[in-house]
Amino acid sequence: MGRLVCLEVEDFKSYRGRQVIGPFDTFTSVIGPNGAGKSNLMDAISFVLGVKSAQLRSTQLHELIYRGATAETVQNGAKRGRGQANATKPTACASVTAVYADDDGREVRLTRSVTSAGVSEYQIDEVHKTYAQYAKFLEERNVLVKARNFLVFQGDVESIASQSPKDLAKLIEQISGSGELCAEYEELKQQQERASENSAFSFNKRRGIAAEMKQFREQRAEAKRYERLERQKEETLVLRALWKLYHVERRFVDAEHQLDELSATLGARREEKSAADGVYADVRRAQAQAQREVLRMEQRLRRLRKGADGSKPALLKVEEMVRHLERKTGQLKDVADRIARDRDVQQRAVNALVLDLDGVNKASEAFEAEIRNQASKSGPVLDEQQLREYRRIKDECELQTASERQEIGALERQRVTEAEAEKHIASKLSEVEQQLIKLADEEAALTGQRDSLNAQTIHLMGDLDRAKEKLAAAAEERNGIIQREIEVNEKLNETLNRLMQASAAKRLSEREKRMDNCLRDMRRLFPGVYGRVVDLCRPSQRQYETAVSVALGKNMDAIVVDREATAIECIQYMREQRIGQATFLPLDTIQAPSINEKLRSLSQDTTTLTRTLCDSTYDVSLERAMQYVCGSTIVCDTLTTARKLCYDDGLKVKAVTLDGIVIHKSGLMTGGRTDTRSAAQRWEEREVEGEYDAAHPVTTLIPTGTFEAMKRARDSLVAQLKELGQERRQVASDEKIQAEVSGLEARLGYMREDMSATKRKLAAVQQQIENARQEMKQLQPRLEQIRSRLAAAAESIQARYPALHAVEDRLFAAFCASINVASIREYENGQLRMSQQANEKRLQFSVQRSKLENLQQLDAMEERARKTQDTLGAELHKLQSLHEEKESILRSEQDGLGELERTESELKACRENAAAHSETVSQARQNVTRLDRGVDEMAKLVMEKQSDLEKLGSERISTLRRCRLDEIQVPLVRGSLEDVPMEDAEAGENFGMEEMEVDEPSEHGLGGQGSLASMRSRDWPVEIDFGPLDDAARRRDDDQFGQNYEDRLTEVAAEVERIAPNLRALERLDGVENRLKETERDFERARKEAHEAKGRFLEVKQERHRRFMEAFGHVEGQIDQIYKDLTKSTAFPLGGTAYLSVENTEASTALGEHEPYLEGIRYHAMPPLKRFRDMDQLSGGEKTVAAFALLLAIHSYRPAPFFVMDEVDAALDNANVARIAAYIREQCVADRAQFIIISLNNTLYERAQSLVGIYRDQDTNSSRVLTLKLDEYEE
């Protein structure tokens, strides 16, 4: 068996440069500290053998290239500067070469390299190969790259034992080679299924065509019988058409004579009515003119009253502003007088100060003269030499008494400071006392002003309360009038509604009138017409009217008839009359949905729509039509109930609420229609008009007396409303009283503002007084303290002078003798003190003179007086303007009252004139109504006869059209059925009528002579030959005779319908036979293809099964013994038990044979003396031993020449490691495989034949390798 000799790595991961690892012995152990590069050796072996980069602890191939820096490089980089230590240039590529020795000893070099761009290259003995060639070379030597039967990575041992059955089956497929057939297996399986489907489709198609041939043979026999029955049916149709046309022609001629007589009478009555209409129009125009004049005068009167009421608030506002300005100007005059008095007082004070200033100036001049005289008498005068001597001695004296002088100077400065403070506080205390006197006077003035304003406010509030009571009384009286107006308006609205309902029939549009007349004519002409749904039924309660009208929708105007034939005749009649469109409900053909009985047992707030219709309003025979238009619609009281039924309970019904909101079966909700109430009012209108009659729903006229009584009631209520309006206008206007209230409130507001301002000023003055008193309390103690400190400072100064004087006397003794003075202090007191006192006196004069000059300024007082006078002048000017505006408003009010009286008298005359015209119009209206009733009655008779005539004509036309449509060959004397038009427009062209000659229907529904249905019998271009009719058919015109024709036709039609032949059966029979032959050929071809596809699939399936079971049988046979060898010991000589089992499920036997690779293989291992447990419940060491046994068993099937494992003993104790080491040594001695194991356990690597040590070289920052053969050191 071949083996791995050595490994050459170059710049791979942590291996820098080119290094040779090995040689590897039969049992080689790789050892070294953590992080030295052991796992990188494992990655190098995996890399050279073609394993992908994702399994080599890297995401990209270029990450496998060495990128570390040497120690020397790091040191040099540190010298060059921080941040450049890793500045070495990375290598461009990495490569790993494995030297492999075959069984015959021939060595093969397998090389794989990768560049920095991530490109990988493969070489065998320096010859470039593709990956497929490279992998094939390894596979020939049982090195399976995909199955990885030569590698066990770190941490993979437990996962191998715990892998799922599907993964284990997939591993056995890779080892056995059956996985190579998987793609072909799936493809052939799909081909087999498609071929089977095609075969089944062809078989079913052949069987269907055979059945179709049998059916066509049966249809050929029925076709001949069908032709015989058709001829019999045509003969019966001709006789029935001749019978109908004969009797229609006879009745048509009788109706023409009666219509001519009625038309003449109608013309005379219309002429009489036209004259009465002219008179009525004239009197109506005169009445309208009188009413317009009344309205114009009323509008003018309202404008005048509004103007008179509007001038009152303006007048009150002006008066209030006048009062406010008068009060304000009075205050300004008082202020001006006070300022004048203050100015006079200030002027007298200034005059006194001027006299004082003259006295101060004179005293200053006298003092200066006295100073000069005293200076000449004060003692000796020193010359220059004596002065120098004085200064020298003085300097020496100051030097000797410096300390005493400093103390005295400090005390003197303190005394001066205290004296200034004492003077400042005394002055401030005097000012505060003056301020208190002034503030006391101001407080007294403000207190008097506050009391005056308080009294005025109380008086004004009383006036305001009285004005509000007056306003409330006027409002109460007006509310009473308004309440009476509301009651009268309600009665008037009720009367107007009754009038509107009573005249609903007169307000019908032209189309509605024609539709009503047409319905009445159809009921008379066609016995099977019952009427419209809205006329045949009504809700059982008034509250359901809106809901029922919404639910019925367009079916409200649907017309109920007995049979579909009646509906067709009515449609033809309406088309000829040009009435419009209508919906018909034939009772014999409509499919009415059955009502769900569960809906009848719902809660009280829901009901079915059919229950809301009064049972007495329609016959039982009409119930089918009612069920058709109503269906399973539910009427609910509220929208909440409807939502609960449709959404929460899930009922598939149509729900309608009482206010017209609809929830459809689909869940869509609609509502908000504006015409629902108008539709619901149709039942109310019929009650008022007396129209509602289930059997005869026709419009009836209201008696004239009822109309007149309603109109008189309306006029009476209108007159009451006018009287109430006049009473309301006579009540004191709210605007006037409100203006008075607003004026009083404004005055009260001004007064309160003045009061608030006065209180604020008073509070401010009182606060200033309190602050001044507090300040006096604070200043008096401070003044006493300063005075006491001043006295103490003077005493301290006097106590220090004796020592100073002693030094001066000693030093100045000779000098004093020379100038003839007792002591130097005598000289200094005489000359120096005089100069000092003169300076102090001059300063006092200067300060007093400045104060007197400042007190003489009166500019501020003058400016205040000027501003006050300007403000007073502006307010007086505003007051004059307001007086003028007040006079203007009073004059306008007097003029308006005169105009108002004249307008009221003119309005009274206009109303009397309008009342006279109204009486004339009422008489003319009664005459027109009487004549109109007569014309309507005669017009109805004419219309009825015209309708009879047109109905007969329509019946004749519809019968001939039916004959033309059904191709019934009716015998004719003149003309042809092709001349019978299918539409009215075509009729005009065929019968020679011009379009403009057709008269439009008149206002009474009469058609002109151009109508096809009303064409005279003599003008009809087609003449029918009634010869085939026998005498019995000519005499009898009853329904029973016509029913005989219907029965014969029904009998023949029923037989024809039962036959229902296929007339093209013979033609299609030949085509079916040809398709049958072609289908049989397709079936044979599909069956052959299915057989061939099944054979190919079975071959691949059997081969896949053989390969898999061969590998499975071998592994199953080896694993138990290997597991026993790994687990037996002296204590457990038999070892454990391990076996493999196939999961045999329904999915694996779907094709009828056992296919274990479809589901999976389950691995079981039981350690010695332990019960059976799942693999997941074993300990880590037990899983490792079991996984190792499985790897060795799989390896024994297609043994790879070498086995590389990375720390597979990490979870084992020493005893298990020793067993595995012994087993590996035994395999190596037998030369069954080569083992290269990375381990840190000495129990394992001590049993190895050689050691490969890996360490980290810190100088080169690279992994290094040492090799040691242990065979040479065996004991």
From TrEMBL:
Superkingdom, natural source: Eukaryota
Coiled coil segments of this chain: 178-236, 280-307, 394-502, 755-789, 900-927, 1062-1103
Keyword tags: Cell cycle, Cell division, Chromosome, Coiled coil, Mitosis, Nucleus
GO CC list: cohesin complex; nucleus
One record GO biological process: cell division
Domain named SMC hinge: residues: 527-646
Keyword Endoplasmic reticulum: no
Pfam families: SMC_hinge, SMC_N
SUPFAM superfamilies: P-loop containing nucleoside triphosphate hydrolases, Smc hinge domain
Principal localisation: nucleus
GO MF term list: ATP binding; ATP hydrolysis activity; DNA binding
Cell location: Chromosome; Nucleus
PANTHER family found in the cross-reference section: STRUCTURAL MAINTENANCE OF CHROMOSOMES PROTEIN (PTHR18937:SF12), STRUCTURAL MAINTENANCE OF CHROMOSOMES SMC FAMILY MEMBER (PTHR18937)
Name of the featured protein: Structural maintenance of chromosomes protein
